[in-house]
Amino acid sequence: MTPGVPLLFSAACLLGGVVCGPRRARTWLALTLAGAAGALGAALLVLGGAPDWEWRHGFAVGGETLHFRLDGLSALFLALLGLVAGTGAIYAQEYWPEAHYPASAPGGRSWWCGLVLGMGLVLVSANGLHFLIAWELFTVCAFFLITLDRQRREVRKAGWLYLAASHAGTVCLFAFFATLAARTGSWEIGPLRGRLDCAPLFWLALAGFGVKAGLFPLHIWLPAAHAGAPSHVSAILSAVAVKMGVYGLIRFSGWLPAPAAAGWVVTGLGAVSALFGIAFALAQNDLKRLLAYCTVENVGIILTGLGAAMLGAAHGDAPWGRLALAGALLHVWNHGAVKALLFFGAGSVLHATGTREMSRLGGLWRAMPWTASLFALGAVAIAGLPPLNGFVSEWLVCLGLFDAATRPGPSAWAATPAAMVLAVAGALALATFAKAAAIVFLGAARTRSAEHAHECGALMRGPMLALAALCLALGLAPVWFWPAIARAAGAWNPAWAGREPPAPLAILGPLQGMLALLAVAAAAGLWWKSRANGWRRGLTWDCGYAHPSARMQYTSGSFAGIAAGWFGWLLRPERRIRRPRGPLPAAASWMERVPETVLERVLGPAGRALLRLSSAARRLQHGRVQAYILYVVAGLLAVGTLVLLGGMP
Amino acid sequence: MTLILDLLPRFALWFVLAPLLPGIINKVKAWVAGRRGPPVLQLYYDLARLWRKGVVLSTLASPGFVFGPAVAWVAVMGAALLLPLGPAGGAPGFRGDMLVLIYLLALARFGTAWAAMETGSAFEGMGVAREVSYAVLAEAALITAMLALCVQTGSTSLAAMLAPAAGADAALLAAGLFVVLLAENCRVPFDDPNTHLELTMIHEVMVLDHSGPPLAVILHGASVKLLLFALLLTEAVLPVGKLAPGVAAAALAGGVLAVTVGAGLVESLLARLAFRRVPLLLTTAFLLCLFALLMAWKGGA
Amino acid sequence: MNETTNLLIGIAMGLNLLALGSSRLPTLILAMSAQGVVLGLMPLLIVEPPDWRVLLVAVATVAGKGLVIPHLLRRAMRTAHIDREVEPFIGFVPSLLLGAGGTIAAVAVARTLPLLPEHSGSLLVPGSLASVLTGFVLLIGRAKAISQVCGYLILENGIYLFGLLLIHSTPLLVESGILLDVTVGVFIIGIIVDRIQRAFDSLDTRKLTALRE
After folding, report:
1. Does B66 contact A530 at a Cβ distance shorter than 8 Å?
2. pTM here?
3. Residues of C in contact with B284 (CB under 8 A)
4. A146 and A280 fall within a common domain
5. Residue C163: Cβ within 10 Å count
6. Is B154 on the interface with A (CB under 8 A)?
7. Other beta carbons less than 10 A from residue C208's beta carbon
8. Cα-flanking dihedrals φ and ψ of residue A69, to 5°?
């Protein structure tokens, strides 16, 4: 079967979903699921070995005839889109039901289908103009989804910030596609590896797609939007929408010849994003903001791999570049699956307790065992620990970097620091997710709302279980997924098209399986032995303190304090402290907030300075005619003086 | 099948020999202080006793309180099995296994950290926060040391990396790895395994609430980790691959013994560092490994 | 010969980092004086065979930098009751990282310099640059006058190392000029230290900002 059939079917279903979304929830769900399944099916067909799909039609939109293409690389992203769109739709049924949100739920369903359709069109468009239209469509749909809960001021603010930042990026993309079309003489996009004169355009693409991908200094919209949006929207934003930026970067770094410095810059930006993203994540107290910053980190890891691949491609298609690219591509899937799982988990916590503040939660495992164990699984996976999927892709990227570092040559100078930075980021990610999972789910409940939490229902649990199963499969049998990755890597650089997996990957799979099996066996064994020896319950020992209270527990701020202190120059936490003084001290307090430094300390002041300058200039414009005549005279005099000084002809 | 037959004796070796090291360290400390000290086999007795004892669980603890130590133990054991044993080589040696080793140690850290956070005790939270934070710096140093070895040998597989002797940078690498050993195993000057002042501890404070078999598993895992780092340090410096098998085995044993005695001497002669000085020492270790890496590069270029 | 001198310079570079990372004044003084001794031995290795003038220079340097100056500094610490803590403006970890980055950069930069072929493989130039940089970091980033003296002396060690490039042509001139310079510098600083101590009852250079009126 040609992939075109399921694709068309999927597009039709999604269009139907847009139309019937506001009124019929059940039909909408069925249509969305069918659409997602169609997209997933088409993607899997291509990834499984079907030839690339191309379709042209004489029908013109905006003066350009339709041209669609689905190759390995876009199929990779399309598969992820189908997966998250389907699971998110099911999740939303229970998480954002009509009964609780009568105003926003119906519209949200339509926007959801619009978003999925828009992103799908971005992936299959082979025409620059249509790419831009689809890009705009999905940006706008995402804006309405982020602001579903628009009664809250912070949500509206986050939405506007997202829209403004996205459009700043879109301006760069307009420039990029327009210049490209001007140089090649056509809006068609495709492999242009021989056109060396197009190489400098890569910088425009980097800026435009970098905003959407959340590269470090351009990530300003990301935390607020992810935290403010409903959790199923946060999930698709983080897992797929951000990846559209990554898709653009991978796509056009493969199709266009890259400038000589591009590999270095992308590797550097990726490493910086990874390190700073996770440093910010560690310092957060808001669960969803933490996950959002972690997205910045993971995009950084992906781009580090991409940068290494570009370096490898520039140095005679070195095999280490292929490893790094494969790692980056696999990480797209891994991060998508895990981050969707984690956002669903965070949504479940929010649903049950009504708060995202980690210092108000605690001890939730008792009320929410499913959420707790699935979130823990996601935490292990995203921290890049074996035997789960995050490890496989990070390992591939790191292996590529290590291989590059051991070969003498200039690329070793980029690969070595990048490998070190990734290691540090990995260790920080462990700290971050040990904190997130432990503070939220372990210990004692810190507030009443955490005490009265309840487990989520089957419709929310099901998607989480499916994603967790995928994480396990990706981790334990990475070789199964290798053909898909190899296909995408071949679409990026034809020199790396081979289907055979790199030798160590074949060993890693069984090794991970063995590890998982042994870990389960050891856990069961130790459980059985402890029980056989007899156990009794007692108060937490706490060094003999007889009345431990929930407020004595380590909080998220105190947990992160040491490592966040090292990044104090970057994080610049705002603290309001009332210290206990004297004997019998009165109430004391400690409040800490970590601002979005780039936004609040750099862009904010710069914007205000610009406004001040402009309002100073505005005083010249006040409506008094006499003064305007004075300006004219002064202008004339100035021009005259200039001419006189310059010498008459 | 052959792989499993190869792994079993290795497993037995690690399982049996590891608890010897803390005993040796304690003996050295006692010897320096002029005491008789506990028997070298003390940890074996302790483990056997703990394994038979009952368990007291915190009322707050979930099953993860028991699962965490089990996962951590499996991870440390897995990391140990990846390490080549001198003449016997690595068990499933493959490209990139040194990264697996580092990440397995991280998994072990996650397991113990998880178990410690289960109890909701402020002290254990403090220990975990310190453990995961200092591990960031220790991991930077460790990965730099691994990079140095990789660059020197042009290989990313442990068996090939550790066979030849380290070059001119051996002294730097040894010093750096020794500091990492002390930090990762929570020895003086980072942590004092003997103290019972909870505010100043890392590892000991994380296991305050554990008892019975889970505690036994944690202690055994910690001793395996100590042996792992001692062996890694020895193999990184000695030219194990060039010696005859018997001599190599003896050299390895001697090296591990020397490192252990060294740790004991450090423990007897130094005081624990103030916590705010810990990052400085770990940064020094990182720099030592970094300069080793640069020298390896210079040698290769 | 080249191997040994490089080893000595490598040790001196390590001592630079020790000086940057040490939080106690005695350690700082020790690092500084050890560096002086290590570098003082260098002329003996570079000029072969060493004649009496070189021997004299070496002995004078080792005695001056290794014994006299540290002794003076320790005595100053004792008599002025300066406590042993180094007070940093730039924290120890950042200054350590700065020093390490500077050392790496110095090695990289020295490769691009147009040096004589006999100096191209040696660490003389990078070692000199690294020491100068370390001296500057100490001068900028430490509060107490004593640690600034140490920073100044390490900076001087760097200049001295650079001067060794010329030792074949003008050995005594270079060396004695530098020694003279150091002696004068230490005397001046000694006098300043004494004055600050009397005027403010403390050796904290931060108090000097009170003089700006």
Report:
1. yes
2. 0.92
3. 17, 21, 96
4. no
5. 18
6. yes
7. 13
8. -145, 140
Residues of chain B in contact with residue C104, where contact means CB-CB under 8 angstroms, are 294
Instruction: Give the total number of structural domains in chain B.
Output: 1
Do β-strands B55-58 and A535-538 pair in parallel, antiparallel, or remain unpaired? parallel
Domain for residue B108, yes or no? yes
What residues make up the domain containing C68?
2-212
pLDDT tens string A13-46: 999 999 988 888 899 999 999 999 999 999 999 9
Q: For A358-414, what is each residue's pLDDT tens digit?
A: 989 999 999 999 999 999 999 999 999 999 999 999 999 999 999 999 988 888 889
Contact list in C for residue B287 (CB cut-off 8 A) is 17, 96-97, 100
Q: Which residue(s) pair with A65 in the sheet?
A: A60
Least CA distance to B298: which residue of chain C? C107
Which distant-in-sequence residues (6+ apart) come within 8 Å of C120 by Cβ? none
Q: How far is CA A621 from the centre of its chain?
A: 45
Q: Do B122 and A552 touch (CB under 8 A)?
A: yes
Pairwise pLDDT comparison (C162 vs A269), residue with the higher score: A269
B135 within a domain of the structure (yes/no): yes
Q: ∠ CA A249-A253-A256 to the nearest 5 degrees?
A: 130
| Contact in structure between C153 and C182 (CB atoms under 8 Å) | yes
Which pLDDT band, with edges at 50, 70 and 90, does C213 fall under? Answer: very low
How many domains does chain A fold into?
2
Domain ranges, residue A234: 1-182+191-204+215-243
Kindly state whether residue A633 falls inside one of the protein's structural domains.
no
A212 versus A589: the higher-pLDDT residue is: A212
Confirm whether A104 is domain-assigned: yes
Indicate whether A389 and A272 sit together in one domain: yes
- Average pLDDT of chain C to the nearest whole number: 80
Let me know if residue A536 belongs to a domain.
no
| Interface chains of chain B (3 or more CB pairs under 8 Å) | A, C
- Nearest CA to CA, how far is B288 from chain C (Å)? 9
* 10-residue stretch averages of pLDDT, chain B, 301 residues long: 84 94 94 92 95 92 94 96 82 86 96 93 91 94 94 88 77 93 90 72 85 95 96 90 86 94 92 85 94 83 51
More confident residue, B113 or C4: B113
Q: Are residues A234 and A332 in the same domain?
A: no
Q: Chain A closest CA to B152's CA: distance in Å?
A: 8
When pLDDT is averaged across residues A409-429 and rounded to a whole number, the result is 93
Per the structure, the complete domain to which residue B199 belongs is given by 26-34+41-300
Contact at CB, B58 and A538, closer than 8 angstroms: yes
The per-residue pLDDT for C75 is 82
Tell me, yes or no, whether A113 and A40 share the same domain: yes
Residue A481 lies in a domain: yes
Q: Which letter does DSSP use for residue A593 in this model?
A: E
pLDDT confidence of residue C115 = 73
Regarding an ipTM greater than 0.85, the answer is: yes
Of the ranges C42-56, C57-71, C125-139, which is most confident? C125-139
Pairing of strands A589-593, A574-578: antiparallel
With an 8 Å Cβ cutoff, are A535 and B55 in contact? yes
Which residue in the set B284, B291, B294 is minimally distant from C21, CB to CB?
B284
Residue C201 has pLDDT above 70, yes or no: no
Residue A125: φ, ψ to 5°: -65, 135
The sign of the torsion formed by the CA atoms of A471, A475, A480, A486 equals positive
Q: How far is B86 from chain C (nearest CA, A)?
A: 31
Question: Does a structural domain hold residue B2?
Answer: no
* CA gap A619, B263 in Å, rounded: 74
State which of A504, A538, A566 marks the end of a domain.
A566
The mean pLDDT of A162-178, rounded to a whole number, is 95
In a domain, B274, yes or no: yes
Verify whether the Cβ–Cβ distance A416 to B208 is below 8 Å: no
Total count of domains within chain C = 1
Please give the residue of chain B at the shortest CA–CA distance from C99: B287
| CB contact at 8 A, B254 and B237 | no
CA C85 to chain B, closest CA, distance in angstroms equals: 13
Is some CB atom of chain A closer than 8 A to the CB atom of B287?
no
Number of H helices, E strands in chain B: 12, 1
